[in-house]
Amino acid sequence: MEAVLLRSKNVSATEFYYNIIQQALKERYDLIYDGFEESALPAKKEILIVCGSCTQMLRIWKKGYRKIVTWYQGTLPEESYMRNHSWLRKKVLSCIEKFALEHSVGNIVVSEAMIDHYENTYKLKLNNTYVMPCYNVEFQKECIISKNPESRVFVYAGGLSKWQCIDQMLRLYKRIEDRVEGRTKLLFFTPEIEKAKQLVADNGILNCEVSCVHYSELAEKMKQAKFGFALREDTVVNRVATPTKLANYVASGIIPVYSECVHDFYKQSSSNPYQIAIHDVNNITDDEVDRIIKLLDKTIDGEILQASMHTYFDKYYNTEWHINNLAEMLGKQI
Fold first, then answer.
1. 12 pLDDT band (50/70/90 cuts)?
2. What is the CA radius of gyration of the chain?
3. 119-128, 218-227, 297-306: least confidently modelled range
4. CA–CA distance, 212 with 218 (Å, rounded to integer)
5. What is the pLDDT of residue 13?
6. Phi, psi of 283 (to 5 degrees)
7. Is 332 helix (H, G, I), strand (E, B) or coil?
8. Widest Cα–Cα separation across the chain
9. What phi and psi values does residue 214 have, to the nearest 5 degrees?
């Protein structure tokens, strides 16, 4: 049977994920088109199509195609409301999202929490649904083993949007820096360099390097870091999310300092001693700061660290495992 993969155009954020879907499709189908344009769809309506949003699914459905698998990269109605504050837009997108969930022959979601959200919100029972977290990196064993076990470097990589909790992150780092009398460094990788420098200055941070790094070079640049920040407020959008920066951190042996509201990653991290889960990003406790400083002062053997971080890649971020299991799900449509 023939299949088509329609990608979204935010290539840097989605290419790795789409490539896994591509390989899974090739295991069971003749992949006749892999690209961005819906105009390339073949005349045959019985073909399997995998697309990357509920809105794209609806456009394809309107053209008469019925064998559609939809990848839900986030909760679109809630994300839209965060940006636009329009209840009407949220309502319309909720209707589209529900339609896609009900009429797609298969669904790909990024977390178990997303399944719970959809089933509770729309009173659905989702079948033939595959869970694969967002990630764009493979495990860096040699990088971890060769890390400086006494590193005192923190890192943040990403944009400066309010939902990334930059203010809370910088305030937390300042508390750490003050506690250890400046014996730390923050690597701040962002495309918004001048704005980031001003935020660093406004928070009175002493030792910070701000720069812009392409995602393909990020792993190399982050090698020296011991901790990585990924803080979020407790919202629906964040509860169902699987931030790619968390995968980048653990792949490089960086201890994540993240919000426990990111449910699936928090669940995956339950037995890992090298992670710091923050309960409430707007009320970070002294005890949570103490836990960070305790690990900061600890010399961590590279072999022990890589063994601990590799547990994320046994299945959760395991590309071959996802290709095989996603191929099995997609194959049910033959």
1. confident
2. 21
3. 218-227
4. 10
5. 82
6. -145, 65
7. coil
8. 68
9. -65, 145
Provide the pLDDT for residue 321: 98
Q: Is the dihedral of CA 280, 173, 317, 133 positive or negative?
A: positive
Mind giving me the DSSP string for 223-281?
TT-SEEEE---SSHHHHS---HHHHHHHHTTPEEEEETTSHHHHHHTTT-SS-EEES-T
Quote the tokens at residue 238.
């964040």
| Angle of the 112-122 helix axis to the 87-103 helix axis, nearest 10 | 100
Question: Model-level pTM?
Answer: 0.93
Cα 159–Cα 323–Cα 47 angle in degrees, nearest 5: 100
Average pLDDT, the chain: 94
Cα–Cα distance for residue pair 118/77, rounded to 1 Å: 12
Range of weakest confidence among 29-43, 230-244, 310-324: 29-43
Q: Kindly state the helix (H) or strand (E) to which residue 287 belongs, with its residue range.
A: helix 286-296
Alpha-carbon gap, residue 68 to 146, rounded angstroms: 45
